[in-house]
Amino acid sequence: MEYKIIGQTVPLVEMKLSKGETVYTQSGGMAYQSQGISMKTNARGGIMKGLGRMFAGESMFMANYSADVDGAVVAFASTVPGSVVPVNLKDLPGGLIMQKGAFLCAESNVETSVAFTKRFSAGLFGGEGFILQKAQGNGMVFLEVDGDVIEKELAPGEVIKVDTGNVVAFDSRVSYEIETVKGLGNIFLGGEGLFLTKLTGPGKIILQTQNFNDFVGKIIPRLPAKGR
């Protein structure tokens, strides 16, 4: 499989497949395809895995695109202005933990599954949901990032605290927990969220400069009221 990222504002990943190669995405994620591509939609891994994806904010069913000829092309586009980030899971033997909504597409030898946070309080109060996703395998997975991407490699014991909506993904070696913002003045007057995600190395982390949910929250109050 060969790929290239096209576009800057709302980018996509275009893949050129050899005969027999398959990639998959959520239902409705395909932007365009050439002749020689066949599609099959299924729960990928069974109904239980499909339900797990639903809890993680993804589609229950996945669309699988297979090349019937060499050189067939299929492309998958991001849904909001931002970036598409390729991650080679061969470099991450333990897999990659992703926040809900970050998965765009992957090669067929990549499996995605539900990943529960190690501490119940992290998911219950963290603002981004109790359930995360884990991608494992020997292939490529492509992530959808809101805004620009920031990649860091944390040293052992190195800590970074991030607004929960700005975390995209991190490798399985990185520990993850939620901290409340300290100080009543900061909570009520600081203008930020109540929680921060604490990531502790070693390991790779991927962050995003835009929190699209926050962006939408700022737009909605400015929309005309119905009936005006």
Structure, explained:
By secondary structure, this protein is mainly beta. The protein contains 4 helices and 19 strands. The protein has a single domain (2-222), classed as 4-Layer Sandwich (Double-stranded beta-helix), CATH 3.60.160. It has helices at residues 47-55, 120-125, 184-189, 212-219, and strands spanning 2-6, 12-17, 22-26, 30-33, 37-42, 62-67, 72-77, 82-88, 96-98, 103-107, 110-116, 131-137, 140-146, 149-154, 159-163, 167-171, 175-180, 195-200, 203-208. A hairpin with a 5-residue loop joins strand 1 (2-6) and strand 2 (12-17). It is globular. The N and C termini lie far apart (53 Å).
Percent range for helical residues? 10-25%
Spatial arrangement of strands, main beta sheet: 5-6-3-10-13-8
Query: What are the secondary-structure elements, in order, as H or E?
Result: EEEEEHEEEEEEHEEEEEEHEEH
User: What structural class should be given to the helix and strand makeup?
Assistant: mainly beta
What is the 3D form? globular
How many strands?
19
CATH superfamily: Mitochondrial biogenesis AIM24
Oligomer: single chain
CATH architecture: 4-Layer Sandwich
Uncertain parts: 120-129, 183-191
Q: Report the top-level CATH class.
A: Alpha Beta
Termini separation: 53 Å
What proportion of the residues form beta strands (DSSP E)? over 45%
Radius of gyration: 19 Å
The biggest beta sheet reads: 6 strands, antiparallel
